[in-house]
Amino acid sequence: MLNLTAEYQAWSDELPALFRHVFTTSEGEAEGLAVSSLSSDLLNSTPKDDLVVVLALDDRLLCGCILFSRLHYDQDPRQVFLMSPVAVRTDRQKTGIGQKLISFGLGHLRKQGVDFVVTYGDPAYYGKSGFQPITETDAQPPMTLSMPHGWLGQSLRKSNMPIKGPSRCASAFNKPELW
Ligand SMILES: CC(C)(COP(=O)(O)OP(=O)(O)OC[C@H]1O[C@@H](n2cnc3c(N)ncnc32)[C@H](O)[C@@H]1OP(=O)(O)O)[C@@H](O)C(=O)NCCC(=O)NCCS
Fold first, then answer.
1. Is 84 among the domain residues?
2. Which residue's C-alpha comes closest to atom 28 of ligand 1?
3. What is the domain range of residue 120?
4. Can you tell me the mean pLDDT for 61-81?
5. Which of 57, 87, 134, 140 is such that its CA lies 20 to 30 A from the CA of 148?
6. Which residues form a coiled coil (predicted)?
7. Average pLDDT for the chain
8. What CA–CA distance (Å, rounded) separates 168 from 125?
């Protein structure tokens, strides 16, 4: 049976290998390495309060993982998190795990008082989980986006847009090539 959890400490060491395998299979070796390295940077260098990790486990098998990291908007009181990266084990894809994991992660963030979640990816897929295209005026990305149509967001509570001012990401995301 699938178990969704935000208790990830016991699994930390296995997460970069999951990202590496999943992204190597879907996008090639270079992307596999890049996302795996991003995930270990996020896990090792992000302050505890700025990182949320959710896992999908089937018994003792790690089936999926999402990393959420804080985006700081110093001129706005709202709490904003970035959802990235997202991976579902290759042989378990398209069985609903991704949707369940996203929905669990958003519920967990809502309980923690998070106001708004952004992501940067495929609008067709993330639209199924309530993400809508947003503009760089609605919420400024921390760096220049190479694919602005992939900038997506959703409110977890009543919220007026825009979110004010520039944003700062976790140091692991401080690389222009990731945007
Ligand atoms: C993208 C990913 C996270 C989706 O997880 P998943 O468990 O395979 O997806 P689900 O089974 O929850 O998909 C649910 C729905 O989304 C659709 N879907 C899945 N991947 C999709 C994609 N890349 N684009 C559009 N729709 C997609 C499914 O067909 C399904 O549609 P339906 O509900 O209408 O039948 C997973 O396939 C994955 O890890 N891919 C490789 C890594 C990646 O691309 N990560 C995302 C970028 S960070």
1. yes
2. 94
3. 2-170
4. 97
5. 87
6. none
7. 97
8. 26
CATH at residue 101: 3.40.630.30
Measured in Å, how far apart are the chain's first and last C-alpha atoms? 36
Domain membership of residue 176 (yes or no) is no
Please indicate, yes or no, if residue 96 is contained in any of the structural domains.
Answer: yes
86 lines ligand 1 (CB under 6 A): yes
Has residue 159 got a pLDDT over 90?
no
Please give the helix or strand (H or E) that residue 15 lies within, else none.
helix 15-27
State the CB neighbour count (10 A cutoff) for residue 106: 22
Q: How does pLDDT run across 115-149, given as a tens digit for each residue?
A: 999 999 999 999 999 999 999 999 999 999 999 99
Give the model's confidence band at 161: pLDDT under 50 very low, under 70 low, under 90 confident, else very high.
confident
Domains of the chain: total: 1
Provide the 3-class DSSP secondary structure of residue 70. Answer: strand
Pocket test for ligand 1, best of 94, 117, 129, 151 (most atoms within 8 A of CB): 94
Any atom of ligand 1 within 6 Å of the Cβ of 25: no
